[in-house]
């Protein structure tokens, strides 16, 4: 690749002129400076919105109910707005709107509270998030916070509710620091766990209702603004009736009413029941691996697979012979990757981003024992707090002043920490995830399969980008397509995939790779890079003293040093290869592994050399390829603001369709190029699809097209 002198456009001025309709001052309202027609439009808009809110108070569908007084006020305001829109003068209309929305903010050029007329009715009917949430959480009779002492006390920031708006406001002390309070009711992962005094079944039924109420306020694909925002008063009351019924059905455990027990004994029984309740949620499971499964379980701690199905993932198909064969295949095909055999008894840490697979069922038995023992504890009337805490994670955590994550109970003064820091509870199912992860992470499935697959595909992509597969496009695409079977296993579209299925999937990829590899040009990657760079160096002009003046001295010397380092490493490599091949104490596999390790050192030097080549800085422009990339990205983002603005509503664009189409085509061309480069940079491609000059040409085309946007005389005045 040859380097060209880069010409950079240093600055671009982008101008978008918008038209203004001028009207005389005496036609504008005194405060908001709006025309009568504008005010009438706002009054009509309020009328429509207000009537839609009034309709939400369908009190006729609630036995014994009557219309809310706040609804009557809103309806009267709607009728007044309608009358003013027809007959009111400009001052009357303005005064009504300013009062309706709580005043006019001249700095923001907007009303102070756009929801003010609707808030009282929405609050009274629990048709708004804040009052609805406050009811189910803090109501004196039915609020769950006062009874859900989840994991004891937890520190949190203190808030108060504005009685007028219903909004929460953070409380601060005289120094402006947040006020911290001890509160009950922390529900990690959205699970309102049993405070302990209620039977497991009755509490779980109530907890499900809490979750449903919280989801009632949540944005979902079905309800983009939440179900609550579109529900009527009767629909809200129906949902709350289910919640209140579950609350009323809460049943105390026998020890709570046992007069023979001391308060300490009752507290211990309560804690045991609380931990059992949580543990039952943790060992609960459902068929989450079904193809196309859309099951929404109420228990978000439940394991997303039936335990027996999950156990079957280890089917005995992973053997020493298979692992050895795969590793030999990697070596033969020039891929720097290895699958290791896991050793449950080893104290040595496993390598990062490496695959460790188990040949026996140690990890499986550990998981089975964990689930079985946990289940037994749930049903054991003599289970202790100490036993249960081995299965339920109840660690309270905080971040210290330096931002370090720590356990509260390990602090020098836990009481001080709880009084002065925001504390939270880590996930209940942490211990389960540990044992599940140990099992799943040592099977030839998911991550271990993905790592092996990625090593194959990455090697093929590198060789493809190095032009080693010219003329083998069909074989290369066949390799990419061979991943589809494994991808279906990974994305959950196949129910209960086993190790054998993943072994079959990797075998398909191996077969496709072998077909492609047969057409590979054998020149090693590091040699390809070296040849490319040394050929380039020869093209750089030098004076009679052998000095080049095209690139900055620092960038040029960095490249020359990297070339020399690479050449030295090659010399070491060639010498060591001779020694390794001559060593009779080594097996052929050991020789191959040793040579591969030395080759990796050469490759590292080659890639560093290539990095310095790409980082050369031209003296004439003092601009690197990265500078060009960043500048083009910035120009693209700026032009994108105009593109999005005009694309959102083409009917309102002030420009001719022809000139906008030119601008859009230039924008999309540069965007495609930048997206391609971004992906290639992430993938570590050795050869990029666009050079500096090509990017600069696209930038120039975009700037030119934007500068040539023509105003449409039909939509714009002077």
Strand order of the largest sheet: 10-9-11
Task: Compute the CA-based radius of gyration.
Answer: 35 Å
Share in β-strands: under 5%
In whole angstroms, how far apart are the ends? Answer: 51 Å
Largest sheet: 3 strands, antiparallel
What global shape is seen? globular
List the helices and strands and how they pair.
Layout: H1 36-56, H2 69-87, H3 90-100, E1 104-105, E2 110-111, H4 119-124, H5 129-138, E3 154-157, E4 159-161, E5 168-170, E6 180-183, H6 200-216, H7 233-248, H8 263-283, H9 307-311, H10 320-332, E7 339-341, E8 355-357, H11 362-379, H12 385-388, E9 396-399, E10 405-407, H13 414-420, E11 423-425, H14 430-440, H15 446-465, H16 473-481, H17 484-490, H18 499-517, H19 525-539, H20 553-582, H21 588-614, H22 625-648, H23 657-683, H24 692-707
Parallel strand pairs: 7-8
Antiparallel strand pairs: 1-2, 3-6, 4-5, 9-10, 9-11
Helix pairs in contact: 1-2, 1-3, 2-3, 6-7, 8-11, 11-14, 15-18, 16-18, 19-21, 20-21, 22-23, 22-24, 23-24
